Amino acid sequence: MKxxxxxxxxxxxxxxxxxxxxRAPEVAVTVFxxxxxxxxxxxxxxxxxxxxxxxxxxxxxxxxxxPRGERVMKRALKAFSNDDTIRWFTERGVPCTLQExxxxxxxxxxxxxxxxxxxxxxxxxxxxxxxxxxxIKELKDSFDYVVVTTxxxxxxxxxxxxxxxEIVPPVPSLFTLNIPDKSLTALMGLVVDAxxxxxxxxxxxxxxxxxxDWGVSGPATLRLSSYAARWLADNQYRGxxxxxxxxxxxxxxxxxxxxxxxxxxTVANTHPAELSDRLWKMLVSRAGIRPxxxxxxxxxxxLARMVNVLIxxxxxxxxxxxxxxxxxxxGGVSLSExxxxxxxxxxxxGFFFAGEVLDIDAVTGGxxxxxxxxxxxxxxxxxxx
Length: 385
Description:
It is a single chain. By secondary structure, the chain is of the alpha/beta class. Helices cover 32% and strands 19% of the residues. The protein has 13 helices and 16 strands. It has helices at 11-23, 62-65, 70-79, 82-91, 111-121, 136-139, 182-185, 218-227, 229-234, 250-258, 277-286, 299-311, 367-384; strands at 3-7, 28-32, 53-54, 96-98, 103-106, 126-128, 145-148, 167-173, 177-178, 191-197, 204-211, 215-217, 238-244, 313-318, 328-333, 351-353. The strands form four sheets. A six-stranded antiparallel sheet has the order 9-12-11-10-13-14. Strands 6-2-1-7-16 form a five-stranded parallel sheet, with helices on one face. Strands 3-5-4 form a three-stranded antiparallel sheet.
């Protein structure tokens, strides 16, 4: 009888165990979890609602969703796709719903329904909570196969000692940015569809931008932090953030403002409908334009300053926001260490890896959980073929 040890009872580990129990109930599966209960992180993901996956609509290239791990994910998604994820949970009594933002959730909007579903599917596996594994290498002496699903490697990397694996140093991903500009943070709570970027790099993200009392957050910021995770870490989370407040080209912004150039109305009281009065007045001030100035008085230079603020408003990045407990890290076991079709170690037969412990991570929107499902499915099916 085959024996399999799974280290880590998170999404990937539990899904792998569930698939092993389904496909090969004769296999003895033992799951080791350092914490007091399985799937603790899964239970609170998505604000406690559990963003299971995404419909991938609008994803032109997988690198848009997976800044690291695109090639492995292309193969894994072919084997177990986002549609397969929804089918898997629906068939096990968890109906799901697709939101307008392309994110899939359980209809109940309760992450515990996903946790309970996986626990039922794992029935027969030996789940050992509060049982940390200090040495992965030693565990192999007691089991035929070892599956490592320990999640992000910001902690616990010492268990890999003696395995001679290439580990990509982990750094945070999916975090908010500290912008110490009082004129901006005075607008806390405001949400704007914008485009943000880091000058001198190719890093750019579009979507809702949330202004907070410490800087910026929201989907656009989280995407940018994912794309630029290593650059930001290398630069000690310092740099410049450029904001295109309307998310359109300079030509389009100039054309829209030119239509107002002969207006007798004041600049402060006439603005694009997408922008709030508070935000617009702040932008007028940043452009160095008097609030009582009329559009017809601006001239070409004044108009150019207004266009420049709208297209490339510049702010200092002064670190990550004060909430430092990120849910996602980039880095982990180098993808060159595993066989892409099975996710088995190239150097150490019988060792497999799935989930965030690999150097795979994604932008927000359910893509990280999909990586957990797809890579865990790959490992489970590799073990029973």
